[in-house]
Automatic annotation (TrEMBL):
Pfam families: Ndr. It comes from Papilio xuthus (Asian swallowtail butterfly). InterPro entries: AB_hydrolase_fold, NDRG. Belongs to the NDRG family. This is Protein NDRG3. The gene is LOC106119939. Gene3D superfamilies: alpha/beta hydrolase (3.40.50.1820).
Length: 325
């Protein structure tokens, strides 16, 4: 029987695709094409003051329990990125033992008004520093981080600077380097369109590629339509500011030999995600004794396309670190 988190994850990777397809069929029954990626009211939303303005934090669960803090990706908010996953039946054992705190990046929440023209959006380090204000507001001493994309980078950034406040990290599609020239050019074009023309078809296409990779409609047409509809309601001005902050990110400045992340990390990607190489690079900069890299087959957006497998990996990871026994 597996005795370590690495062995558990290896076993998870060997799960048969047939069984996984059966699991996904049951999941799809709960994901009709008319689904909306909006808050279902399960969380209590609070605004937290920080040195760079307020952030919206949505809390779910008993606040006396150990904390899990989530941070979302570009074009999404806590409801769109995490709600369906944390509602998934296999996440119930985790919800019973933890309190979930979802942080929304400034101006990314549902129905957000456009930020003022003279507003200076926080850079990635400043977004990470806002977590300290969230911890202070709720009296959280330490937490387990769960982030996707830009949110994963923010949580990783925080763990580098404040390892004593972080117990462990689950990071999906995490990038540890600066933006390359191709990303820079593509994002600059998207930001210009978002600011001048709103959410254009080109911007929607980019967000779909960012989250799902290619051929999303072929894999799951209904899910693709749900997210296209979701992106059409995002505040384009505020999103352009968040994208700009992510585009200007600095390198995390970590390596296996010097200043690596000191806490356990579950480093996750989907095999069809455009960010696979980013996670491989990130993995090479982490302490192998504290890191597990997991690539989920046949998907790009793992929380939506393979929730059962991610829930199981999350549970095994927490179990391996002494939680969820």
């Amino acid at each position: 029987m597996p005795t370590t988190i690495q062995e558990n994850i290896a076993l998870l990777n060997m799960m048969s695709s047939d069984n996984l397809e059966d699991d996904l069929k049951s999941v799809q029954l709960h994901s009709p094409s008319d689904r909306r990626l909006q808050s279902d009211g399960a969380c209590v939303e609070e605004r937290v003051r920080t040195s760079r303005g307020e952030v919206l934090v949505a809390v779910r669960g008993d606040r006396s329990k150990r904390a899990i803090i989530t941070y979302h990706d570009l074009g999404l908010n806590y409801a769109a990125n995490f709600q369906a996953f944390f509602n998934f039946v296999e996440m119930r054992p985790i919800l019973d033992k933890f309190c979930i705190y979802h942080i929304n990046a400034p101006g990314q929440e549902e129905g957000a008004h456009s930020l003022p023209e003279d507003y200076t959006y926080p850079n990635m380090d400043e977004l990470a520093s806002q977590i300290d204000f969230v911890l202070g507001h709720f009296g959280i001493r330490s937490f387990i981080g769960f982030g996707v994309g830009a949110g994963a980078n923010i949580l990783a950034r925080y763990a580098v600077n404040s390892p004593q406040r972080v117990d462990a990290l689950v990071l999906i599609n995490c990038t540890s380097t600066q933006a390359g020239w191709t990303e820079w050019l593509y994002q600059k074009i998207n930001m210009r369109q978002l600011r001048s023309n709103g959410m254009t078809q080109s911007a929607v296409d980019y967000l779909m590629w960012h989250h799902f990779g290619r051929s999303t409609d072929d894999r799951n047409h209904d899910l693709a339509q749900v997210y296209k509809e979701c992106f059409s309601h995002v505040n384009p001005i505020n999103l352009a500011m968040f994208i700009d902050a992510y585009l200007r990110r600095s390198d995390l400045g970590i390596s296996r030999d010097n200043n690596s992340i000191k806490v356990p990390v579950l480093n996750v990607t989907g095999a069809l995600s455009p960010h696979v190489e980013d996670t491989v690079t990130f993995n090479g900069r982490l302490d192998p004794a504290k890191t597990s890299w997991l690539s989920i087959s046949d998907c790009g957006m793992v929380l939506e396309e393979q929730p059962s497998k991610i829930a199981e990996a999350f549970r095994l990871f927490l179990q391996g670190e002494g939680y969820c026994r």
